[in-house]
Amino acid sequence: MTTQAHDNSAPVQIGAVAAEVPLSNRQRTLNRFLRHRMAVFGSTILLCIVLFVTIGGVIYSERDANFNDVSRRLQPPSAEHPFGTDTIGRDILARTIYGGQISLLIGVTAVFMSITVGTTFGIVAGYYGGIIDALLMRFTEAMLSIPTLLLLLVMAKYFAGRIPTQELFGRTFSGSVIVIIGIIGLTSWMGLSRLIRANVLSLRESEFVTAARAIGASDFHIILRHVLPNTIAPVIVATTLGVAAAILSEAYISFLGLGVQPPTATWGNMLEGSRSHIDNAPWLWFFPGMLIVLTVMSINFVGDGVRDALDPRSRE
Amino acid sequence: MYKYIIRRLLQAIPLLFVVSFVIFILMQSSGDPLATMGGRMPPRAEDRERLRQSLGLNDPIYLQYIYWLVGNDWRMVDSTGDGEPDRYGTRRGVIRGDFGTSIITRQPAMQVIGDRLENTLILTMTAQVIIIVGALFIGIFSAVRQYSIWDHLFTTLSFIIYSIPVFLLGIILIYIFAVQFRIWGLPHLPTAGMYDPIEGRSFGQVARHLVLPSLTIAFISIAGYSRYIRSTMLEVINSDYIRTARAKGLTERRTLFVHAFKNASLPLITLIGLDLPLLIAGAVVTETIFAWPGMGKMFIDHLNRSDTAVVMALLMIITLAVIMAQLLIDIVYTWLDPRIRYD
Questions:
Q1: How many domains in chain A?
Q2: Any domain includes A253
Q3: Is residue A204 part of a domain?
Q4: Does A297 contact B159 at a Cβ distance shorter than 8 Å?
């Protein structure tokens, strides 16, 4: 998507690039990203975490993650259970692996939803203006003025138990996973949609859009080929940072008991109930907690790097 | 300016309608408020039906919303639950200041909230003071000593802390300052409630119980704010008028704190203003971990038992606070930066 975007916007930027080394926009962006040390560090950690949950998934089966044996409850880390066992004797290592898959899945898909909604609303409001713009922006403001966490909790309660368990790719997904993806996606698009609207408002008046309109291009064509590619940078940055925010949101709702329901593990719901075992079983919260922190932190680093790399004002 | 304020207030009215309507529908159609009534002895099916009827839960949802909004004293309602409307309703509606009655405690919703509001304000205001002082100190310090060891240390720390979910930070603080300190024989801090029930509620007790929850809230916000303050301070310090101030021989302290800080504080005002109502909402998690008897914990309890009146009242108050905070920021802006004008 990045490449396409830059190829499309190339004609506009030619003036600025002509005098310099003839590197393609894509290479320049990549170079800037690779020079951002924290971003490279973040990508490496992120890669390790992805390998952990995928390779781990090959070694341990989901059955291992959900198998409980009360006689071995609350065992400290040992050779047999490297991360220890939880309150009903489930292996924490296996659960962090499968919990990680679900947490990352929720992060990515929820963001995909929020980006779709945010971009559509932003472009439609900015491009068409008038009454549509007014209505959409009032709606955005309404959503923004309710504290997100409280709205998430109310929605989680509303949808709880309404979606049946799904079978996908040979795996069973608790309906609550889909609910959480949906509500996080539907409550996190507002910032992006305002940003894009502001961008589109200025793009709409630019010469190349007027030119496109003059040769008879349809609104759909103009939006897709001329407006969208030029406002792609904030979308990419919002996508990266949004994944971290979505993983955190899931952890909050699940920690408060309204999120993904057991036996399906997520890093968030593994922490629920660990409050009562802070002193006698620190491994209960340490491993899933550290994985959340590492993931969120490395995504934030990557997002920072992407922002700098895509910023045309940042130095070579 | 006045025209602007009035226009903004008028715009807020439909916004509150939309918000209240959506949340009301979500609340009224999720869960069963009667599920926990009667404790271990669930009410008989016909009692249950009578109860639903007399509480007005069988009315169409739009009618329930209208009752919530404008009251039902203009209409005959079925107070005995026998299916026949028998007397005029007693609710006066939100518009006339009646937020309804909690279905759990049978007290007015406002009273339920009022009892807890003070506790939440004690927690969040303490946290807010720590946040402002801490963030200003770290932000200005890092900006003045840019690229020093301390600056790098604060940068790294804030990146790490910013990625920690509040509840995990709370757990870590409890683990260090309560669990490990006790093991090491050091004076340890209490982790639950507002005061020791044996000692009774006193200033010293509340202060001791306040340390860990307020630090939990403060740390994460300090990590975010100090970054903002650092970058705006840096921008201002490198501007021409600061060079002028230095050139005309002002002391460094006066330059930084009078000339630079006033302009650098603009984004801080936005952040604090917008975050203040959210801080109260965010206390949900912290109050749950530390068993702090505030509004956040109450919100979860009443939400889980489908107590629409209390949940709605709380959400409306916070939403109104967010809108008011935004307006207030706009007004403070014109005072801090005379270049900004509305209308």
A1: 1
A2: yes
A3: yes
A4: yes
